[in-house]
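Risk register update: the risk of archive-format incompatibility is retired. Evidence:
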Amino acid sequence: MSLPPEKASELKQLIHQQLSKMDVHGRIREILAETIREELAPDQQQLSTEDLIKALRRRGIIDDVMKELNFVTDNVDQELPSSPKQPVGFTDRQSTLLKKSDGTRMADSTTMLSISDPVHMVLIKTDIFAETTLVASYFLEWRSVLGSENGVTNLTVELMGVGTESKVSVGILNIKLEMYPPLNQTLSQEVVNTQLALERQKTAEKERLFLVYAKQWWREYLQIRPSHNSRLVKIFAQDENGINRPVCSYVKPLRAGRLLDTPRQAARFVNVLGYERAPVIGGGGKQEQWCTLLAFLCRNKGDCEDHANLLCSLLLGYGLEAFVCVGTKAKGVPHAWVMTCGTDGTITFWESLTGHRYLHKPTSPDEPSAAEQPKPLYPYRTIGCVFNHQMFLGNCQPSDSVESCVFDLNDESKWKPMSEEAVKSVCAPGATTSLPPFPPLCASTIDASVTSNEIEMQLRLLVSEHRKDLGLTTVWEDQLSYLLSPALASYEFERTTSISAGNEEFQDAIRRAVPDGHTFKGFPIHFVYRNARRAFATCLRSPFCEEIICCRGDQVRLAVRVRVFTYPESACAVWIMFACKYRSVL
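Archived output:
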């Protein structure tokens, strides 16, 4: 097959453009220099063409070029030269085809050196009651392995405590790092160290510039109104290691895959993660500690800021315009919650600790009808600032009361914004100052049916022992226990969707199961842990539940039903319902 001269020239030009785009000439020069330096014997003065071709094949250059160039021959009868179709053409595969890796090739050492994300390691202690404690959080710089012989290196790192103990050593960790599959070529340790030093210098400069900008922004904010000095405008927050980070770096869009289907289900997931304030040594108020997402998920509990950051990240992942709000609730207690802004201007507050949602309608204290308006249902009193992964805005309205606040975030007379470029410089994905990418959520490892049954059997034993100590006998009715299941499912459905369903069928079934002249009592309660003994002790503190467990009378029958609802990261909602029926005696 031959080409007309003009087509051949066009084809050469296309190939040349593609090779220039791939920087093939530069890569060949690099390999030529390396081959001369590493493989040329001292007594050998020249490098043969065959040696160079072998080196190019070994480094994958020729394979890369052939994959990029695709010659397509049309099915045209060779006897029809007058056909208008071109017999040969050049296509850029990148524009039409997706490349699929077979997993047998990995990035070269130079490319991997540019990956600045550290390995985040979290150390958790779990006691015999399944209570978790965060011991240490460490960011490992792994790229030293790129400059080690055979792609293997051993490191010794000192793990420090968290929070108030962030300056106290908790132990030494020996780490062996190995690249697999092995790299075709390792870098010199000098190159690796130089790259890391340049990144540290760049990071320090970005942090310095952002700090200078934040100080200037704060001065301008105080000049608007001196009373702004008392508002909760949180620009920086300490993580578990005591490192000050911009609050915007704690939030990033997070997709839950197929583990959570709706934003409200995501809110329920965040709600069932345990609430625990950072420990304080001595008095003086609340301890400052915002946890990174991995540390929060590993111990499955955290403060209100941790819950709000996670919920905001999930809502951003669902495509909503979400912000973390920092302010106060009743009695001036500092608090954080989440806000979403609808396309129609609707403002919705999401309480991350309970899963409740509240619509916000601003009220003006100057209006005569303001006193007649019902008080808002939400518990929030004041708001100082709002932020997400891209924006930070300080509330500069005359009053920081949530009731009268207008959430038109585009109105700079009401909300003073930080420069989005400044926020992006330290918080955008890939910025060396930002936290590493959020880990994907893990599916639950809890078997809901098995766990429900185990807790139920343990509670039956605890109730029987408790009644025995009181001199009472215990008779369980399995059918009545089973009839409690729809009620527990309905309670969880209502917590997730705010819709009540199935209560009519439950009540009808109970009426049929309780004979005339008998009384039925039931007590549902909700936990976020799976410790049966702890749950039982909590139930006894309720007079209603104690009345059922310690029921006395004629033909007393007891029932208990446990239903565990699982969520990602092995979080769970545990619903327990105690019930009894007995013959009424006048």
